[in-house]
Amino acid sequence: MLALHSMQTYLGQPQLPSGDKRWKMVEATARRHGREPNALIETLHTVQECFGYLDETALRFAASLLGVPLSRAYGVATFYHFFTLKPKGKHTCVVCTGTACYIKEAPALLAAIEKTHGIKPGETTPDGELSLVTARCLGSCGLAPAAVLDNVVVGKVAPAGLLARVAKGLHP
Ligand code: FES
Predict the structure, then answer these.
(1) What φ, ψ does residue 152 adopt, rounded to 5°?
(2) pTM for the whole thing?
(3) Confidence of residue 166 (pLDDT cuts 50, 70, 90)
C-alpha cells in the first residue's frame, strides 16, 4: 500500500495557492527536505519568514506538500511560540526586513508606520484596522525595499509612499 507521502509524490505537486512568488520559496524548503513529514517545522518557518504569519491557506499548503494532516500543521503552529497565526487586523502590512530590504531602508518604513499608526511589528491598532508584521524575505529582492499590503506587493517604496498606500487601504 502506498504511504500517504508517496501517494502525494505520485499524484504530483500540490498547486501553489496563488501566483505569489513566496509560495515557491515554501515549496523549495519542502523539496529540500524530500517533502518528508518531519520537515513540517522547517516548512512552516519558511512560510513565517516569507509572509510574517501562518494562515489557514499556508497551513493547508504546507500540510499537502508534506502529506500530513491539516490538524498536525495546526498542532505545530499553535504549540511553538515562535509561530504566529494570522494577525487580527482587518488590513495587514508586511514589511520585509531581509538583507536587501534592510539596507534599502526597511527600518524607515517600520518607523513611519509606528509613528503614524502607533504599532510595532506583531501589533494591531486598537480599532482592529491595521496589523503590522515583518518578513525575512518576500522573494522580490529586486523590488527592495518591499512590503505587502493585503496581498499586494509594493516595491521600491519610500516611507511616505507606504503610508499613502496604507491610508488608501484603510480609507478607500
Ligand atoms: S530581502 Fe526583501 S524581498 Fe528579499
Answers:
(1) -110, 125
(2) 0.74
(3) very high
Homologous superfamily of the 91-170 domain (CATH): Glutaredoxin (3.40.30.10)
Q: Where in the chain is the domain with CATH 3.40.30.10?
A: 91-170
Per-residue model confidence as pLDDT tens digits over 55-74 = 989 999 999 999 999 988 98
Sheet holding 123-124, edge to edge: 123-124, 130-135, 91-96, 147-149, 152-154
Q: Which atom of ligand 1 is nearest to the CA of 98?
A: 1
> Is residue 169 predicted with pLDDT exceeding 60?
yes
How many residues comprise the chain?
172
**Does ligand 1 lie within 6 Å of residue 66's CB atom?**
no
Ligand 1, pocket-test mutation among 49, 138, 157, most atoms within 8 A of CB = 138
